[in-house]
Amino acid sequence: ITWTPIKEFREILFTQHGGIAKISINRPQVHNAFTPLTVQEMIEAMDICRNRTDIGVIILTGEGGRAFCSGGDQSVRGHGGYVGEDTVPRLNVLDLQKQIRSIPKPVIAMVAGWAIGGGHVLHVVCDLTIAAENARFGQTGPKVGSFDGGFGASYLARIVGQKKAREIWFLCDQYDAQEALDMGLVNKVVPLDKLEETTVAWCHKILEKSPLALRMLKSSFNAELDGQAGIQELAGNATLLYYLSEEAKEGKNAFLEKRTPDFSKYPKFP
Ligand code: 2NE
Q1: Nearest 5°: CA angle at 47, between 193 and 151?
Q2: In the prediction, which pLDDT does 201 show?
Q3: How far apart, in whole angstroms, are the C-alpha atoms of residue 222 and residue 226?
Q4: Most buried by CB count within 10 Å: which residue of 124, 154, 165, 193?
Q5: What DSSP string describes 138-185?
Q6: What pLDDT sits at residue 160?
């Protein structure tokens, strides 16, 4: 599989294969722990994916085959957050989580090795997860003086159930790929050497489908869980569809032509 660079970054790789974009954390020496810069770069890459009409699906992963992501880089954890070159403490991974959920294109976590702590939450918020047999999942928050009570707790509980989610956070145990599959935390487990090939095959299946239907479905799944923000996303898609109609265009055209709109020919569906 040939991946063509989209944009150069310092702590991530951002590449493309046809309609598939791949965002890969490139800090394998620390099991792809993220700094504020890593996250800022992922946010920018995700934004590019959102705006590029030729991109239909996004793979989120980590370089090296030994880790997807081990969470926030503890060596730059300061007073009130993770500290980058500007010395400002941040938890900008929370913005990335929201972005992954709201981008109107499927995001697939491709997990080899560790998906731990804030790295585990990143795969949780992706739409789908494909795991290699060497994948290991878990939270460490209460062990290292942290927690994610947002999507990391409530959305995790929606996926694996309340009892299991509380076990994951309270015990900080690690779970292998088969255990993750059994609890519905991942969609598929494959040998490590088949991970990318399988993920790309899933992407191609998705790319064959109607992008608007996928978009509506993603926001529909979110709407039930995300309250007013979820409804806003779903309603935004309704507006998009309405703008495509002749009926909506009649309203705009009448305004620009300084006449009364004539909606009489548009049906009042039962
Ligand atoms: C992932 C795990 C279990 C792997 O263990 P092992 O034994 O296979 O590897 P090792 O030797 O621990 O790690 C290899 C190198 O990567 C560094 C290690 O310090 C080590 O460096 P050297 O000793 O070779 O120099 N490394 C690994 N994870 C790192 C990290 N997160 N930050 C900085 N360096 C890291 C084991 O490595 C582990 O438990 N890692 C820590 C996982 C963790 O606690 N992550 C933070 C959770 S909190 C969080 O992510 C968060 C949040 O809760 C809320 C908001 C935002 C973030």
Answers
A1: 75
A2: 98
A3: 6
A4: 124
A5: E--HHHHT----SIIIIIHHHHH-HHHHHHHHHH---EEHHHHHHTTS
A6: 98
Contact 122, 111 (CB under 8 A): no
Buried b (16+ CB within 10 A) or exposed e, 132-161: bebbbbbbbbeeeebebeebbbebbbeebe
Alpha helices in the chain (DSSP H): 36-51, 93-102, 118-125, 141-144, 156-160, 162-171, 177-182, 195-207, 211-225, 227-243, 246-256
What pTM, to 2 d.p., does this model score?
0.97
Q: Which residue, 25, 26, 15, 24, is CA-closest to 52?
A: 15
For residues 28 and 4, the answer to whether their CB atoms sit within 8 Å is no
- CB count, 10 Å around CB of 167? 15
Q: What angle do CA 195, 98, 40 make, to 5 degrees?
A: 80
Q: Which two tokens stand for residue 208?
A: 């064959």
Q: In angstroms, what is the span from residue 57 Cα to ligand 1's centroid?
A: 29
ipTM above 0.95, yes or no: yes
Which amino acid appears at position 12 of this protein? I
Place of tokens 């310092």: 10
Tokens 């309270």 identify what position? 170
Distances (CA, A) of 215 to 26, 60, 91, 109, 202: 29, 18, 28, 18, 17
pLDDT beneath 70, residues of the chain: none
Which amino acids bring their CB within 6 angstroms of ligand 1? 30-31, 33, 70-75, 91, 93, 114, 116-118, 140-141, 144, 146-148
Distance (angstroms) between ligand 1 centre and the Cα of 116 equals 8
* 149, 130 Cβ separation under 8 angstroms: no
